[in-house]
């Protein structure tokens, strides 16, 4: 089976250059750190576009495929512009993501709005900006959306988000498709929802079903089960209501290689499984071939991203561990503390040597749990060394916070030896931009 770039542990342009430093996208990472300061997120455009090309190729045998980048993985205007150029649509989950994608001049009919508690304001914005599909999650939202649609005299194109009852073996916080889930209609509630859409909520037009089974998935067979369930429902709904739905959206979830031990399937493998199971289900349930929507997030952007940090203090606990601290941590990458996620790192400015030491990389934030990597084998570290952490493109910047009132890092896009800032580093003034001191507390004007 052909390999794909989402299976790499590092961006595909990674190499050691003549200066002995790690180079990514033709840029020396030590120079990037000097020029833009650290912590610094770096996205390699070539890896990103190669993964997009892999996805498109993997699904070309099913021409009715639409790939919608799950922008929650990393949503910035420039990233949206790149994915738009690649011909992808967008899965969005908030007014903020919709607004960002719109800011990149994306054709909003290629945008889907998803989420279990969309607000009145967010649904309004989605309708005003012409978002193509709303994936309705629950009965409350059906009523709310219909009211908003009525008030605007619009017919809104929707999918129903369903819980297919599939358990996948990933971290429990990132499983979503099992039965006891906060997301979507239970299979037993679909008919009631359809009755309402057909008889009461006449400003809603139902096109199909949407599901998502989890994230960082390595099992391929689970997608075949999901496709089977969705197609079976399409056929059952046609039999019962005479309603021909012609779209299935199977969500995202394909995993990436954070550590040496991770072996994610390739996009080609996943493509083959999904397309084969779709053909089988079309025949088995005697339905017209539906349009297939996918929503990959992590597997599109994770591998393209790295984070650079500068090494600062270190501490040898007597008879214990050696801690080495970096200038970032849980506020720019909360995944280790949230999900016990593991990352692989190298020193950007030191060739690999045989003399490795075992260190724990601690973050700079004020809590003991802020450990980025436990027991990393690295060359002896000195202050000022640059640490390069791989596979940080997804769910790092997008989940970053200002914990400890620390500015969020910049994001730089690298390609062919050029680097461009796509998100500016926050400043101290940015941190106080929304602060208000009531007059009675003001010390002076
Ligand atoms: N579609 C839906 C409806 C989703 O809920 C998600 C992710 C995706 C697509 C994209 O899944 P992906 O291809 O990225 O696996 N913050 C967690 C991941 C949460 C994923 C939530 N939903 C993490 O850092 O691991």
Number of strands: 21
CATH classification, class level of the domain at 45-300: Alpha Beta
The parts where pLDDT drops under 50 for at least 5 residues are none
Q: Output the CATH homologous superfamily of the domain at 45-300.
A: Alanine racemase
> Which cofactor or ligand species appear?
ligand LLP
- What shape does the CA trace take? globular
Distance between the termini: 69 Å
Question: Radius of gyration in whole Å, from Cα?
Answer: 23 Å
Mean pLDDT: 95
At a glance:
The protein has helices at 29-36, 45-58, 77-85, 95-103, 120-129, 139-151, 190-199, 221-241, 267-284, 298-301, 335-339, 428-432; strands at residues 15-16, 22-24, 27-28, 40-44, 65-70, 89-92, 111-113, 133-136, 156-163, 185-186, 204-210, 247-249, 291-294, 305-316, 322-326, 345-347, 356-362, 371-379, 386-390, 410-415, 418-423. With 445 residues, the protein is an alpha/beta fold. The strands form three sheets. Strands 4, 14, 15, 16, 17, 18, 19, 20 and 21 form a nine-stranded mixed sheet that branches.
Helix-strand layout with pairing:
Layout: E1 15-16, E2 22-24, E3 27-28, H1 29-36, E4 40-44, H2 45-58, E5 65-70, H3 77-85, E6 89-92, H4 95-103, E7 111-113, H5 120-129, E8 133-136, H6 139-151, E9 156-163, E10 185-186, H7 190-199, E11 204-210, H8 221-241, E12 247-249, H9 267-284, E13 291-294, H10 298-301, E14 305-316, E15 322-326, H11 335-339, E16 345-347, E17 356-362, E18 371-379, E19 386-390, E20 410-415, E21 418-423, H12 428-432
Helix pairs in contact: 2-9, 4-5, 5-6, 8-9
The structure holds ligand LLP.
Residues 70, 72-73, 91, 114, 174, 176, 212, 215-216, 251-254, 295-299, 335, 339, 395, 399 line the site of ligand LLP.
């Amino acid at each position: 089976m052909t390999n794909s770039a989402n299976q790499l542990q590092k961006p595909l342009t990674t190499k050691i250059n003549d200066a002995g430093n790690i180079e990514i996208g033709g840029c020396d990472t030590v120079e990037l750190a000097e020029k833009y300061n650290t912590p610094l997120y770096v996205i390699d455009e070539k890896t990103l576009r190669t993964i997009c090309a892999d996805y498109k190729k993997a699904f070309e045998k099913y021409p009715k495929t639409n790939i919608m980048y799950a922008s929650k993985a990393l949503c910035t205007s420039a990233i949206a512009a790149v994915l738009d150029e690649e011909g992808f649509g967008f899965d969005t989950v908030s007014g903020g993501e919709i607004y960002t994608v719109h800011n990149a001049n994306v054709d909003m009919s290629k945008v889907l709005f998803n989420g279990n508690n969309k607000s009145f304001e967010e649904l309004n914005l989605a309708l005003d900006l012409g978002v193509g599909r709303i994936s309705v999650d629950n009965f409350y939202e059906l009523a709310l959306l219909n009211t908003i649609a009525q008030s605007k005299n619009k017919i809104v194109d929707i999918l129903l988000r369903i819980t297919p009852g599939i358990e996948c073996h990933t971290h429990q916080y990132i499983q979503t498709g099992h039965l006891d889930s906060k997301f979507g209609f239970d299979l037993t509630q679909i008919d009631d929802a359809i009755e309402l859409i057909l008889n009461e909520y006449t400003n809603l037009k139902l096109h199909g079903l949407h599901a998502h089974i989890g994230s960082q998935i390595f099992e391929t067979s689970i997608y075949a089960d999901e496709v089977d369930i969705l197609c079976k429902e399409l056929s059952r709904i046609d039999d019962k209501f005479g309603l021909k739905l012609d779209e299935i959206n199977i969500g995202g979830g394909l995993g990436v290689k954070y550590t040496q031990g991770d072996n994610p399937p390739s996009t080609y493998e996943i493509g083959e499984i999904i397309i084969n199971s779709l053909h089988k289900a079309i025949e088995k349930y005697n339905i017209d071939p539906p349009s297939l929507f996918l929503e990959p997030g992590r597997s599109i952007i994770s591998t393209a991203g790295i984070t650079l940090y500068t090494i600062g203090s270190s501490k040898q606990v007597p008879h214990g561990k050696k801690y080495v601290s970096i200038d970032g941590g849980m506020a720019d990458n909360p995944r280790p503390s949230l999900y016990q996620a593991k990352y692989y790192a190298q020193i950007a400015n030191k060739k690999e040597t045989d003399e490795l030491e075992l260190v724990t990389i601690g973050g700079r934030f004020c809590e003991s749990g802020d450990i980025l990597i436990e027991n990393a084998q690295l060359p002896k570290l000195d202050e000022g060394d640059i640490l390069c952490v791989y596979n940080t493109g997804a769910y790092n910047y997008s989940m970053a916070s200002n914990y400890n009132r620390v500015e969020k890092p910049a994001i730089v896009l690298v390609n062919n030896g050029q680097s461009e800032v796509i998100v500016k580093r926050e400043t101290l003034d940015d941190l106080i931009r929304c602060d208000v001191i009531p007059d009675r507390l003001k010390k002076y004007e």
